[in-house]
Amino acid sequence: MQFGLSAEDEARQVAQRAWSDGHRQIAIMVPDNDWGRRVGEAFWDTWSNAGGSVTNAVSYAPDDAVANAVKSALNVRGERAQLEDIGALFLLALPEYARQVPPTLDYYYASDLPIYATSHLHEGTLQPRLNQDLDDVFFVDIPWQIPDAAVGGEEVLPHYESYRSFREEGEMSMFRLMAMGVDAYEIAANIQNFTENGRMSGATGQLTLTSDGRIYRELPWAKFQNGIPTPILTPSFLSDGES
User: How many whole angstroms separate alpha carbon 73 and alpha carbon 126?
Assistant: First the structure.
């Protein structure tokens, strides 16, 4: 049985979401490293298998100017993005880089272009002023990292008492690993029920045991509004045609 915080699984869910939202042509921005290539390939494969096309795929240097990557991804000519063949942008980025992307899109007259992202742009702490530049960006994250996006509020989070205890410790840089540790313990303690049912509500998402022994995490969705993650519905994935 294999369990981990797979960025590739997140990318696949982002591809599913963008497709379900009706997009068919997309640009991709991922870091120019092994991690970026793995996650980018996971997104690309899922997107292509659904029938979508990738207009541009950019591997950016994290220390380079964000404008350089955006110009390549969006076919910028002069000072204007060319969006005839681009319906959305998939972004894999850490917070400092990610926060610069929407203002750069604004500069190139692409403020209405939807941005879909993984959890890596979200640090998990409420920073409304700092995160206002991420407004309208869609992203997935574990339930424990977006409690304000949980339908019903914090108290309905899986393993709420553990969540509250770890939150009080304030080690936010380790919070995802703490959540994974809680889920690993719960799986081990309830292995028979989990094996028989194949599903469990966890701190890191809705956990499903696959036929090859992997544990797949389905994550909730949020969108930044006024710098704060807010809940959005999770659509079902339509793999066999147009939505």
Answer: 30
Q: Is the pLDDT of residue 236 over 50?
A: no
Q: Do the beta carbons of residue 182 and residue 203 sit within 8 Å?
A: yes
List the end-to-end C-alpha distance of the chain, in Å, as a whole number: 34
Question: What is the strand order of the sheet 88-91 is part of?
Answer: 53-60, 25-31, 88-91, 115-117, 138-140, 221-225, 228-232
pLDDT in tens, 38-95: 999 999 999 999 999 999 999 999 999 999 999 999 999 999 999 999 999 999 999 9
Q: 226 with 132: CB under 8 angstroms?
A: yes
Which three-class secondary structure state does DSSP give residue 13? helix
* C-alpha pair distances (Å), 74 with each of 26, 92, 104: 10, 16, 11
Pairing of strands 25-31, 88-91: parallel
**Residue whose structure tokens are 């742009």:** 121
